[in-house]
């Protein structure tokens, strides 16, 4: 989108189109590097204006799936549909570029250029993909930084601010073009609990204010239970998706004990009390 004012309940049949209410449809997706299959036969929908969390243990392919969804890696098999339009199987480069312009992406590191100020970092997509004048770009940059709580930090370098602030600056750049599809890779990784909670609240606020569909990769339980409307669980052992649903349902009702145990880690962590357990 150009800047203006700055569950599936059951498994989908192979090859079926995304549901009318679905914004994103992953269909029979297999991810592989050479002969090594990371995940196979992934099929799920992401409902419009909902937050879907991709979760699972280390090395299961969560971030790899996100990279397939944003066009950085092609699948070995299968497809991804955006509003019913094929991204990989039938999509030509022009179609992929057009769809990708709807994306806002926050990588795990924040991916800020260290030699550029926060304002310069946030301005990059506007300078590259819009025809706005410099004064208009500056106005949008100030607005986006203020939106993530960084008003007054426009001229700071990334090294001069905290890790949590760098994540928020990266988020400001991700939303610079007013995307309706937001992809976040481990947004709260490495943050202390209060900072992570503030970032989760910000993600919810941005989803609501921008009416965006959001895909988040995370293994952080607090974030999973706070932000997720829906979730998918990738299993490293079987190399496929073994559950989809709201985390507060899966923690009690998932068929796989592996999923239930993953979501119940917070109940037994040192220092946890009964109020910490998911309800």
Automatic annotation (TrEMBL):
- Family matches, as Gene3D superfamilies: P-loop containing nucleotide triphosphate hydrolases (3.40.50.300)
The reply on keyword Metal-binding is no
Domain spans labelled ABC transporter: 24-263
- Provide an example Pfam family for this protein: ABC_tran
Q: Which UniProt keywords apply?
A: ATP-binding, Nucleotide-binding, Transport
Molecular function (GO) terms for this protein are: ATP binding; ATP hydrolysis activity
The keyword Metal-binding belongs to this UniProt entry's keyword annotation: no
Protein name in UniProt: Polyamine ABC transporter ATP-binding protein
From the broadest rank down, the organism's phylogenetic lineage runs: Bacteria, Pseudomonadati, Pseudomonadota, Alphaproteobacteria, Rhodospirillales
């Amino acid at each position: 989108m150009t800047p203006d004012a700055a569950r599936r309940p059951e498994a989908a049949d192979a090859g079926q189109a995304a549901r009318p209410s679905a914004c994103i449809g992953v269909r029979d997706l297999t991810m592989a590097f050479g002969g090594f299959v990371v995940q196979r036969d992934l099929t799920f929908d992401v409902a419009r204006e909902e937050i879907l969390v991709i979760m699972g243990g280390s090395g299961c392919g969560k971030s790899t799936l996100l990279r397939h969804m944003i066009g950085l890696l092609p699948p070995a098999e299968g497809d991804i549909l955006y509003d019913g339009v094929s991204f990989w199987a039938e999509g030509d480069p022009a179609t992929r570029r057009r769809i990708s312009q709807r994306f806002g992406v926050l990588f795990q590191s924040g991916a800020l250029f260290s030699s550029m100020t926060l304002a310069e970092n946030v301005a990059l997509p506007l300078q590259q993909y819009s025809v706005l004048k410099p004064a208009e770009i500056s106005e949008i940059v100030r607005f986006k930084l203020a939106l993530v709580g960084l008003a007054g930090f426009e001229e700071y370098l990334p090294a001069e601010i905290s890790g949590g602030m760098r994540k928020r600056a990266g988020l400001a750049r991700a939303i610079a073009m007013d995307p309706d599809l937001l992809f976040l890779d481990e947004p709260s990784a490495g943050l202390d609990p209060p900072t992570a909670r503030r970032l989760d609240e910000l993600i919810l606020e941005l989803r609501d204010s921008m009416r965006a569909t959001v895909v988040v990769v995370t293994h952080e339980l607090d974030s999973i239970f706070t932000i997720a409307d829906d979730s998918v669980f990738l299993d490293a052992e079987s190399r496929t998706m073994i559950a989809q649903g709201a985390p507060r349902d899966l923690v009690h009702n998932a068929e796989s004990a592996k999923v239930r145990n993953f979501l119940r880690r917070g109940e037994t962590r040192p220092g946890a009390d009964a109020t910490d357990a998911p309800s």
